[in-house]
């Protein structure tokens, strides 16, 4: 499953560089941990550029009412610059401004953010606002952005987000989750009746790669629940699942 982890890292690196992931596919032969370190270092370089100017802009924003700052942010700065400024902004001030921004714009900003730099802001954002942003990102099918933030959200918020994260969204998001150790913790929060839905989504849309990747990163109890749901699919789907599992060297996951 190391190869799958590397493939997921290539997708995230391509997003960071605004590049076609196919052009970077050769990197999937490298260790996923090395790829993640490379991506984080490149993120640091991008976010640390012009740091003094960003700090001055963040300090200057405190001189204006939150409503005015929000209008300037959305109409003048744009999502990329706002994401950079958020990384050096006081959390309370950033949350106050964020509450006044449209959901669509906040989703645009989320795409450009480095969650590591805004973890305190994320923690202070109202849950309803986070769920609105999540719903917008699901509508856009932006699994990478969702996956980058899951590790920075409390369990209660993740559990609440299951309402907007449908089965297809969960499979895709788990595949590109930044911290794969978090995958098992997230799946532990799922109600048991969701496992049949995950299996059905895998069969309907041929999502075997993220499904078997998910099986590799969850605990034994949840693994058996998902594997059992896969074994209960119709005969044609079970045959297809076994075929793909054998190709990927994970057929043992489907054995009763």
Note the main attributes of this structure:
elongated, 256 residues, mainly alpha
Number-wise, the strands total 0
Structural class: mainly alpha
End-to-end Cα distance: 20 Å
User: Main sheet, how many strands, which sense, barrel?
Assistant: none
The chain-level mean pLDDT equals 94
Percent of residues in β-strands? under 5%
> Could you tell me the radius of gyration in angstroms?
20 Å
List the helices and strands and how they pair.
Elements: H1 2-17, H2 32-48, H3 51-61, H4 66-86, H5 91-98, H6 103-112, H7 119-124, H8 127-140, H9 143-150, H10 155-161, H11 167-175, H12 181-188, H13 194-205, H14 208-216, H15 220-231, H16 235-248
Helix pairs in contact: 1-2, 3-4, 4-5, 4-6, 6-8, 9-11, 11-13, 11-14, 13-15
């Amino acid at each position: 499953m190391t190869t799958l982890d590397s493939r997921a890292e290539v997708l995230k690196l391509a997003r960071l560089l605004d590049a076609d992931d196919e052009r970077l596919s050769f990197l999937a032969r490298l260790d996923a941990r090395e790829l993640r370190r490379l991506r984080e270092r490149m993120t640091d370089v991008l976010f640390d550029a012009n740091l003094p100017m960003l700090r001055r802009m963040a300090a200057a924003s405190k001189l204006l009412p939150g409503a005015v700052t929000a209008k300037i942010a959305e109409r003048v700065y744009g999502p990329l610059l706002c994401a950079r400024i958020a990384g050096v902004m006081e959390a309370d001030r950033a949350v106050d401004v964020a509450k006044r921004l449209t959901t669509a714009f906040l989703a645009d900003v989320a795409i450009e953010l480095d969650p590591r730099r805004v973890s305190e802001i994320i923690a202070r954002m109202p849950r309803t606002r986070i769920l609105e942003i999540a719903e917008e990102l699901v509508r856009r099918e932006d699994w990478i952005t969702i996956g980058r933030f899951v590790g920075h959200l409390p369990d209660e918020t993740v559990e609440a987000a299951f309402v907007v994260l449908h089965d297809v969204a969960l499979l895709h998001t788990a595949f590109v989750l930044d911290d794969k150790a978090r995958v098992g913790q997230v799946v532990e929060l799922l109600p048991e009746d969701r496992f049949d839905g995950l299996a059905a989504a895998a069969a309907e849309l041929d999502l075997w790669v993220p499904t078997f990747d998910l099986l590799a990163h969850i605990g034994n109890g949840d693994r058996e629940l998902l594997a059992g749901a896969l074994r209960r699919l119709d005969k044609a789907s079970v045959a297809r699942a076994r075929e793909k599992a054998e190709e990927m060297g994970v057929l043992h996951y489907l054995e009763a």
